[in-house]
Amino acid sequence: MAVQEARQSADAGAHGGGCTCGDCPHGAREGHRRAVAEFLMKRDEFAAGQGLPAAVAHSASASRQWVSEELTQSAELVAERGRAEGEAWLARLWSRTAYTMWAGVVVLLLVQALTAIGAGWTAARTAGLLAALVTAGALTTASWFHRTRGGALAPVIGEDNRLSTSRAVAVAWVLFVAYAVLVLVGRLAAASDPAERDTLLSGLELARAAGVVTVLAVVCGIAVLVRRVVGLRVLGQRLQKVRADRPRAADLLTDDAGRGSFADIQYVVIGAVALLFAAVRLARRPDQLPDLPWGLAVVVLISAATYLAGKYAEGGRPVILSVVRAREAGDLDAPIRTGDDIEIRGAGFVPPGAQGAERLSRMTVRVGTVHVHVPLVPVTGGFSNPTDAVLTVPVPADVEPGRVEVQVITAAGVETNRYAIDVTD
Q1: Three-state SS at 161
Q2: Which of 71, 156, 186, 204 gives the lowest tally of CB atoms within 10 Å of its CB?
Q3: Distance between CA atoms of residues 212 and 218, nearest Å
Q4: What pTM was computed for the model?
Q5: Contacts of residue 5, Cβ cutoff 8 Å, sequence gap at least 6
Q6: Is the dihedral of CA 340, 341, 344, 348 positive or negative?
Q7: Quick count: other Cβ atoms within 10 Å of Cβ 232?
Q8: Could you count the other beta carbons within 10 Å of the beta carbon of residue 168?
Q9: Could you tell me the CA-to-CA distances from 235 to 141, 238, 313, 418 in Å, in that order?
Q10: Buried b or exposed e, range 10-19, using 16+ CB within 10 angstroms
Q11: Measured between alpha carbons, how far is 388 from 358 in angstroms, rounded to an integer?
Q12: Rg of the chain on CA atoms, in Å
């Protein structure tokens, strides 16, 4: 399908893929889709041995270098269109978040109206609806000022342009507690009986809401601490981070590579269950802050500690374990010479989220004082070089014979250890 789309793109009309005018069907999203389709077609053609010019077809090293350069240029176009599509998506997101918030207010109104049948409309229902209106209005106003950064989701988007699990959980609890306090404020403003006012004021006492307050303090502290931990680990080259094109909802449950993360999943699930319990308690007892049982509060604290431990455990610095001369079938055993291919074996060469060609093309190997860009070797559906555990690069002719050091620089800018090899004439 991607190949067919790429071949049809030449007949798409006068607008380019980067056009973002309102009535153009070929906006940023369409431009990114076309660039991806063209790249996939080119990669698969090269993997099948097609499209090579006659001038380089006779030399394996020359053809590999030419293919790598062509794929790198195409990947850079994909990355450029991807960034444009991500910015356009964020600009559209603020209105969607606003619509979602006000849809939630409408749903709350319908639920209260349905549950009021038979029981009657109460002051608590009015206070709850007014608190929802105030909360949604404040969030809508704030999201307008951050409309280019995702609207209401701007506070939960991390520096790597992904949704932050710790911030999302903390924001959810902050909004819930603020809503609960607004409900009590509304009821207190409407109360005329001194005894009722005293009851509402006593509902704000710490003894009745110690569980909720403790959970709120812990999740907010975790959000701040995780940001600090990740920042220090990145600066210390113990964690590799690459920027995403745009945030996705799956970021809350996965790592940077898109794989499901146990620490993130259990933190979100347990936090959501505890929040749902607190919401039900607020609906049942709207005259006080939700009294979250200590058993459930401790479960949330254990979940938060597990999430924090997972952040400390993830990542690691890339490392070179060995370097050997790459040998093809029929070659004689020999020492490493200039012009030979060397195979660098290790771990952590490809950072999570850097599996795209544009990121892979940024990988560099320092051989002595010469920087060698790692060539992209396409295969059907991906690349055989580079990989997370093995890199193959040629030893350039500018390397002086003797003992030289090899070092890999990943797409995230992290350097591996130095590994010494002997290069002969």
Answers
A1: coil
A2: 204
A3: 10
A4: 0.83
A5: 33, 34, 37
A6: positive
A7: 11
A8: 22
A9: 36, 8, 16, 19
A10: eeeeeeebbe
A11: 15
A12: 29
Which of 85-99, 291-305, 361-375, 397-411 is the least confident region? 85-99
Amino acid at 94: W
pLDDT confidence band for 22 (50 / 70 / 90): very low
> Any alpha helices (H) in 116-205, and if so which ranges?
123-145, 165-190, 194-202
412 Cβ neighbours under 8 A, 6+ residues apart: 240, 241, 242, 351, 354
Q: What backbone torsions phi and psi does residue 386 show, to the nearest 5 degrees?
A: -85, 165
DSSP string, 32-53: HHHHHHHHHHHHHHHHTT-S--
Q: How far apart are CA 135 and CA 182, in angstroms?
A: 9
Q: What Å distances lie between residue 57 and 44, 49, 69, 342, 380, CA to CA?
A: 17, 9, 15, 22, 19
* β-bridge pairing 336-337 and 419-424: parallel
Cis peptide before 394 (omega within 30 of 0): no
Q: What pLDDT score does 407 carry?
A: 94
Closest C-alpha among 348, 317, 354 to residue 235: 317
In angstroms, the CA 69 to CA 373 distance is 10
Contact criterion met (CB below 8 Å) for 165 and 259: no
Length of the chain: 425
Amino acid identity, residue 111? V
Residue 354's pLDDT band (cuts 50, 70, 90)? confident
β strands within 331-395, DSSP E: 336-337, 341-347, 364-367, 370-373, 377-379, 382-385, 390-394
Q: Please determine, for residue 218, whether its predicted confidence score (pLDDT) is greater than 50.
A: yes
Q: How far apart are CA 224 and CA 222, in angstroms?
A: 5
